[in-house]
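Run: sequence + flavin-adenine dinucleotide -> complex structure.
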Amino acid sequence: AMQNGYSKKKFDVAIVGGGLVGSLEALFLAKRGHRVRLYEYREDIRRTPQVRGRSINLALSIRGRKALKTVGLEQHMIENHGIPMVGRMIHKVDSSTYVIPYDTRTNQCIYSVGRNYLNSLLLNESESYTNVERHFNHKLIASDLKKGTLTFKRTDTNEEVNVNADLIIGADGAFSAVRKAMMKQPLFNYSQQYIEHGYLELCIPANEKGEFQMPPNYLHIWPRGTFMMIALPNQDCSWTVTLFMPFNTFKTIDSEDKLISFFKEYFPDSLPLIGEKKLIEDFFGGSPSPLVSVKCRPYNVNGKAVIIGDAAHAVVPFYGQGMNAGFEDCNVLDELFHKYGDDLEKILNEFSDTRWKDTYAISDLAMYNYKEMRDLVTRPSYRIRKAFDDLIFWAVSDFWVPLYNSVTFTLMPYSKCVENRRWQDKILYTCIVAGVVFTFLAFFFTRL
Ligand code: FAD
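>> structure
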């Protein structure tokens, strides 16, 4: 039915949300020759100065890269913009540091990319397709997903705009309006969880010479048990620093003195890099944002509507996989378009029936990593396990891929990564038990 990835039928597709995932999905569908209209609540980010909200930069890994490759943007992103991060650099309270490499076996790394840069790149790329229209300042306010109708309110003119589409794609983020409409459908499962922690973004500027103030090719972490700080490098040699902390702890820091002594106590090495004045400005200039995790299913309404990205599965950011998982959604959908030759009902049903296992898996993993990053990394048990994992990985890399590596550096479905970890745990556990028994027997028999 298809040649060159082109579809025979030309669908009228309305995408709600022109964030990272929506603007990427527009490219996938445009490539297939469909007519795509992209509706975004905010102004065109390419024309407005950076607004606060969401993270400023993010970690791009293999799943996101694969999707970018399909639309021809991977190389540009990696070579011209991404900053490689080859491991975690842990900052201890005494200001000393050590490195935990991500992948010594195959030398893969993750890339720090600017959210606005990537989003703009995707939108710019969509300009090269005559079959894509972009409508900014359009907020979805009502919809009938079964009929395929949407009502937007223009935030600039206050006008209402009605739209009909063969297919509606909800890529409108963690607080999705399309998902809200789906919740009215029978048999729709939904759960959300706010974690106790919020996040606040700070900045380590470039030095006077315009250089990085810390080694650039690492994701820096200051794990402090119940809270932590991380930093990812930017193109202009500054760092976006994110403080994750319980809202209650944020509240106790209510004066400049308390803030400075808090940093002196817990993040002493970062203080001169951020600068006291800038720290005070940035800390009190913003307020901590909440982090929400959303699980729901099914993702579709018949062959008419589907949600992807954070709208379908917002996850906490501790595995660096939210965007990557959303980008992978685009790939999965694209493969189904190919498989079912434009039978929307089949495509959306299969997407919904199969994808949730993997998104639930990454959601759980991210929740687990929430603890690992701020606390467990500092414990001997974590480092011993990691040493074992790395050793076996090094010896038999096809057979034994540690969990973090399978999630970040392979295209193995997330649910499979979790299964893998389970049998690895079993083997390690069995070896430990066998080792203990053996030692005991050896001891016993040598005394006979
Ligand atoms: P969004 O980026 O939220 O975009 C949704 C868009 O829809 C927005 O532009 C919004 O304006 C628009 N919209 C909303 N409502 C409406 C409406 N009613 N009508 C029209 N438009 C609407 N992921 C990674 O892979 N790696 C990382 O390192 C990483 N770090 C993160 C750090 C933090 C602190 C946070 C919060 C997230 C992080 N993520 C990371 C996750 C990542 O940000 C999200 O998964 C990603 O932004 C999801 O993209 P999206 O397009 O689905 O949603």
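>> summary
The pocket of flavin-adenine dinucleotide is lined by residues 16-22, 39-42, 54-55, 58-59, 138-140, 171-173, 177, 199, 242, 309-311, 317, 320-324, 326 (CB under 6 Å). The chain has three domains: 12-83+110-192+292-372, 193-290, 379-446.
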